[in-house]
Design goal:
The protein is an all-alpha fold. Among the domains are: 92 residues, Alpha Horseshoe (Serine Threonine Protein Phosphatase 5, Tetratricopeptide repeat); 60 residues, Tetratricopeptide repeat domain (Serine Threonine Protein Phosphatase 5, Tetratricopeptide repeat, Alpha Horseshoe), CATH 1.25.40. The chain is 81% helix and 0% strand. α3 packs parallel to α5 and α7 runs antiparallel to α8. The protein is elongated, with a radius of gyration of 32 Å. The relative contact order is 0.04.
């Protein structure tokens, strides 16, 4: 039989343990709250850095914007948007290799991030690495096929590499999304000229001019198509329209000179140099 004093001592120890256990549980609860609170504060701070950087980026203060994006990724290396925004700022600041790395850091977190692939395409395009740019641009369009600009960029890249028929198909994708996309209409027209399809090219330039009657590039393009088709007088008229909009438009001036020389009018042609 356990002595009474020992039974009392056991009850006392048991109560003390329960009290201690309660205190430990309360302390653990408080600690968890502190950890969660710190995590929330850190997340909010990261979002603030990214938001502030985005505000500065929109204001074209790219250097200060980059500083905030750097703080955001330092605070949370898994914050994919901050890596993309960081890459954008670096690309605008012409630090292309670093920007490409930032975009790839974003892709390590989310391989299907269309904005990161788009940024890689733009950075490679800026350094004239067109084959690499095309791979990235194609992936961006695959992930976001509702972006007319993504289709347009693919068309431009393929055009620059002399892949004209493939280029036309990409411009068609952009125009399907926006029939009034004058830049896509214009470049598709230029590409049709490269394929020798002058009538198709002229029709596309006319479409662009319906969208914007002051689109000097479309007048130039139409003039070039007429010029290539041997219609020199009509070509000169289109060059003149471009020059009415912008008297200093050098491409239109040079093209007009070539047309005049082809019409055996050297005095008038060289008179444009005065």
């Amino acid at each position: 039989m356990v002595p009474a004093f020992y039974r009392g001592q056991c009850r006392s120890d048991d109560q003390n343990w329960r009290i201690t256990e309660d205190k430990i549980m309360k302390l653990l609860g408080i600690l968890m709250c502190i950890i969660i609170f710190i995590g929330i504060c850190a997340a909010e701070e990261t979002e603030y850095f990214d938001w502030k950087g985005s505000q500065l980026y929109a204001a074209k203060n790219y250097t200060d914007a980059l500083a905030y994006f750097n703080q955001a990724v330092a605070q949370d290396p898994n914050y994919v948007n901050a890596w993309v925004h960081k890459g954008n700022a670096e690309r605008v600041l012409k630090d292309y290799n670093v920007s490409i790395q930032s975009y790839y850091n974003a892709l390590q977190i989310d391989v299907n991030n269309a904005a990161a692939w788009s940024g890689i395409a733009d950075s490679y395009m800026a350094v004239k690495s067109y084959s690499n740019a095309t791979i990235a641009a194609s992936k961006a369009t695959e992930l976001n096929n509702q972006s007319k600009n993504y289709w347009y960029r693919e068309g431009r890249l393929l055009q620059l590499q002399g892949m004209y028929e493939e280029s036309v198909a990409k411009f068609d994708g952009a125009i399907a999304l926006d029939p009034n996309y004058k830049e896509a209409l214009y470049l598709k027209g230029i590409t049709q000229m490269a394929l020798g399809n002058y009538e198709d090219a002229k029709a596309l330039f006319d479409q662009a001019l319906v969208v914007d009657p002051n689109y000097k590039q479309a007048y130039l393009g139409k003039g070039l198509a007429l010029h290539a088709d041997g219609k020199l007088v009509e070509a000169q008229q289109e060059y003149d329209k471009a020059l009415e909009i912008d008297p200093g438009y050098s491409y239109a001036k040079i093209s007009r000179m070539h047309a005049l020389l082809a019409m055996n009018k050297p005095r008038e042609a060289f008179g444009m140099l005065i």
